[in-house]
Amino acid sequence: MMTEAKVFLLPDLGEGLTEAELVNWLVSVGDEIRVDQPIAEVETAKSMVEVPSPYAGTVTELHGEPGQTLDVGKPLISVAPAGAPAVEPVQAAANTYREEEKAGSGNVLIGYGTPAGNGAVRRSRAPKSTAGSGRAGVSSVASPESSVSDAEKAADDLLLLRTRVPGKLGAVISPLVRRMARDHGVDLGEVHGSGDSGLILRRDVEAVITKPAVIEEPITRAIPNQGTTADARTGLGIASRTPVRGVRKAVAANMSRSRSEIPEATVWVDVDATALVELRAGFKKGGAHAPGLLAFIARFVTAGLKKYPELNTRIETAPDGSQEIVAFEGINLGFAAQTDRGLMVPSIRAAEKLSARELDSEIRRLIDVVREGKATPGELGSGTFTLNNYGVFGVDGSAAIINHPEVAILGVGRIIDKPWVLDGELAVRKVTELTLTFDHRVCDGGTAAGFLRFVADAIENPGTVLAEI
Predict the structure, then answer these.
(1) Residue 383: CATH number of its domain
(2) pTM score, whole prediction
(3) 184, 289, 404, 440: which is the annotated catalytic residue?
(4) Is 440 assigned a catalytic role?
């Protein structure tokens, strides 16, 4: 009696994430693995993580390829218990498409997956394509309504066993794939299978069906940058195409949502930071650890948010469409950090309880973590307010986009020497610009200006403010 392999589904990686990009497999088919052994590296919208196996045994199937985006709850890996007999290649492949027909499947026979559920999935036979529509649409290709009778499946399996080359898989085993190819006029002999041993999967046939027709250009028409694809709008050759995925995909979605949902407004002020720069220099001269300027500003920000808590909130929409402002008992201060994987915003939990030195230590730790790609979803998705030090890029100001679902973001420009009127006389001072972008639904301009002025005054008189807080 053959022991059935256990299928491990991609787990919920926290913070409401619904998908992850498969970066690299850490195991191969046939490997013996143990419980909690890392089996794959995946990149979520938050970070790069290693996924451990909950099962021990022999790897029988890897459900995905590097670069593929997998949905949470879909098959990731199949593991046969230790000591289980080997599975014939054909039978293993047949099991593959059988599993794909169950609710919650969809990774191998792409486009045929169905939502996960507790009960059986009801299917009905899809209508035949009309004449002349063989390559026209995608909707008929990806329809989840296709079905194959048990008799057809049995006949296909029998035919496969009779005609296959010993020790090798047939080119196509799934009747669903064969039917799709037949209905759309695809010659399977011309299709390169991307599965094991050249197995032709649904995605391979889908790629042929959805491939745009090639239109021959008139001989007399000059083709710019011959040898590369020409852009129809500009006529220029296209140098490259980069998929928007991983961190960049998350940033794009978050920023688009912020712009579309939040009625934002921006206020700014120039600040004399000379006293703060001198205070830090004094710490360094005395041999004591001197927190970075960002840590001091972070300390002023948390004090300001205590005084103006409206900026440390979130707006939620109830099922009936009504909205409410959610206030928090603490402050998780996020800060923007540039990494090789894009802009990341780790957050310091309970930042209001930390001193400038403690904030400096946590900022440095989190920067190291995110640059190594090891930040947890909690460290990257729990902020309540964001501090953005874009001055490190040599710019003075920016109308930043709010980090949804937060309601405000404070930007700090570079600190440079500028002419400044001090006690009625012109002087050269260390000046920076603070920019606050806020959600006008949670407060008005007076509140926003009050908070911004509080932080500005703290920078100009750091000794007094630090003593008070």
Answers:
(1) 3.30.559.10
(2) 0.56
(3) 440
(4) yes
